[in-house]
Amino acid sequence: xxxxxxxxxxxxxxxxxxxxxxxxxxxxxxxxxxxxxxxxxxxxxxxxxxxxxxxxxxxxxxxxxxxxxxxxxxxxxxxxxxxxxxxxxxxxxxxxxxxxxxxxxxxxxxxxxxxxxxxxxxxxxxxxxxxxxxxxxxxxxxxxxxxxxxxxxxxxxxxxxxxxxxxxxxxxxxxxxxxxxxxxxxxxxxxxxxxxxxxxxxxxxxxxxxxxxxxxxxxxxxxxxxxxxxxxxxxxxxxxxxxxxxxxxxxxxxxxxxxxxxxxxxxxxxxxxxxxxxxxxxxxxxxxxxxxxxxxxxxxxxxxxxxxxxxxxxxxxxxxxxxxxxxxxx
Length: 330
Ligand code: NDP
Known about the structure:
Helices cover 39% and strands 13% of the residues. The chain is of the alpha/beta class. The strands form two sheets. It has an eight-stranded parallel β-barrel, surrounded by five helices. It has a two-stranded antiparallel sheet with strand order 1-2.
């Protein structure tokens, strides 16, 4: 199945509709060798975007991706890399949970060093920071781009109002504008992408690089009989995910999706990923995988997208939200 490329909102670059992220997996589950295999598998399937963040494994995820990129030796212009800032790596009044100018300007240099790159393609503000003015943050993002250390910037899990405020300030001063959000989007988490941001796609040309398409694995069906050994739900440090992964109401809905997946001749994971891809406002679905076989399976989700007819989508809606979007929300 050929990869599809979509514009990142109004930005000129094209991004593969399926991409690969490193949260949880790089360092905690995968070494450099395993990361090389995973990234190579993705790249061969046409994936051109690899998502990262400073805070993932406290910098180790960037180090692993950097070492993998060095080994893979791909042409720099053939792929896109991101990183994100907010939580920080150190305690200190100006280093933790902040988007202040000093932190952002210092942060990008650390990320580039760990990634072994001269620039990243996308820098994200990983969360909103109520203690720094949006103007200061937007100006710092603009300056990082002007300095050549990033190409585009975006935000993650900002409210529609915050995004619009950042865009308007940049418009007023002629600064580089945020081009994309990075929101969670999956069958159990739809409100923001489908309702809150609805106006922004048209008004400011917002892109969407969406995360956790499988709700951390819940939508694969692997948690139907409890938490399997070796899964994300069993990892030390991720206990906070367990309530959601063992939520009986959600699991019942996953169970009800099984006949639809069977009918479409696909796995539950492929059905859930295809369902995200079918939303034209989604620029890319960031996949996560702890094994190459999972990634191979998930990349085949593109075959399922044309099978999602209005009738099938309606049946899926009935299962996850009883026909009403709000009821299906987290
Ligand atoms: P998913 O919801 O798709 O979860 C991925 C995990 O599910 C895998 O690591 C694996 O975990 C399991 N899995 C995946 N495919 C299969 C399969 N076919 N069969 C069985 N198990 C499977 O995505 P993530 O939560 O990993 O998010 C994807 C990316 O999004 C991240 O890497 C990151 O780049 C980005 N992200 C961004 C955030 C933000 O705030 N901006 C927040 C979170 C993620 P296991 O095998 O260990 O059970």
